[in-house]
Amino acid sequence: MQVESPIKRRKSRQIMVGNVPVGGDAPISVQSMTNTETCDVAATVGQIKQLEEVGADIVRVSVPSMDAAEAFAAIRQQVNVPLIADIHFDYRIALKVAEHGVDCLRINPGNIGREERVRAVVDAARDRNIPIRIGVNAGSLEKDLQKKYGEPTPAALVESALRHIEILDRLDFQEFKVSLKASDVFTTVAAYRLLAAQIEQPLHLGITEAGAFRSGTVKSSIGLGMLLMDGIGDTLRVSLAADPVQEIKVGFDILKSLKLRAKGINFVACPSCSRQNFDVIKTMNELEVRLEDITTPLDVAVIGCVVNGPGEAREADIGLTGGSPNNLLYEDGKPSYKVTNNGLVDELERKIREKIAQRQAEEANTIIKV
């Protein structure tokens, strides 16, 4: 299968969110946000660790009060993934989490208040090498822009972003990224395209309040896919009214489909029909659950019959083609041996894990030689 993506990414300035590079030639990072009560330290830490387990590069935590800021200190000590503090209005909260080791501040300079308050936050960020994310959202657009444009248009979102950027420019602070989110795909895509041509800073992608799991996944995949195909985007969040763990999984699936990140198994599976020699849907459901822990990239084709099966199997690391009386398993694009329907999933899992172990050993040997 094709390894490299044909997408040419927009050139952007690189910033560091903890130990994760964002922008430049860094991989597009995937992030999510906790939905626990931040003051419930145990619950928040537990959710962050779940997100870490499925590969989250960055996690955002809402910090709406000074009590939450103190809880953030305890949370920071118990997790390894870089943390972004989501803060609005009260600049003192930003100063407090800066002391507690936050890796990024999601804060709009324009709603912090007087110039000296903004300067205090920016100075704290500069002193501790903390980047800032300017987050423009169609649902919280400034009142004068709502009046000027009548609705959250792409131009309105960009004008709002440029206002916040101007404040940071005036304070000679360039370590920031920007997001321009709306729940409407067309508004969001147009806004990002407009801003991408005007600034060099990295862009955080997202379709805000995209919806429940199924509809939100579709909407996010279309919107983010359009931007990523344009080469726009340095980090992303899929905003779902669902378990945050699903946001990470969908985010990586979007990047995987565009060959922008390789993480875990890339399954190629037919939708099944009356020609199938085994239950493809049941097989795939079982495999996805059993192999969720795998992060090493691997192409696996599961095709129910001999029409498209051999062709897909020849392009995969591991392939299975349905046949009568027995199915045929391929390895590295070549026919290997026949497999009956009895214990089919067990055999596929065994072979996939064997291949993963082989690949990991090869990578380890390469590192040792270097």
User: Would you count the extended β strands for me?
Assistant: 15
Cα Rg: 23 Å
* Fraction of helical residues: 40-55%
Strand content: 15-25%
Specify the structural class: alpha/beta
Shape: elongated
Number of helices: 12
Which blocks of ≥5 consecutive residues have pLDDT under 50?
A: none
Mean pLDDT: 94
Major beta sheet, strand line-up? 8-7-6-5-4-3-10-9
Largest sheet: 8 strands, parallel
TL;DR of this structure?
It contains 12 helices and 15 strands.
Helix-strand layout with pairing:
Elements: E1 15-17, E2 20-22, E3 29-33, H1 41-53, E4 58-62, H2 66-78, E5 83-86, H3 91-99, E6 104-106, H4 115-127, E7 132-137, H5 143-149, H6 154-170, E8 176-181, H7 185-196, E9 204-205, H8 213-229, E10 235-237, H9 244-257, E11 265-269, H10 280-290, E12 298-303, H11 309-314, E13 318-321, E14 327-331, E15 334-339, H12 344-369
Parallel strand pairs: 3-4, 3-10, 4-5, 5-6, 6-7, 7-8, 9-10, 11-12, 12-13
Antiparallel strand pairs: 1-2, 13-14, 14-15
Helix pairs in contact: 1-2, 2-3, 3-4, 5-6, 6-7, 7-8, 8-9, 10-12
Key descriptive features of the protein:
370 residues; alpha/beta; eight-stranded parallel sheet; five-stranded mixed sheet; 12 helices; 15 strands
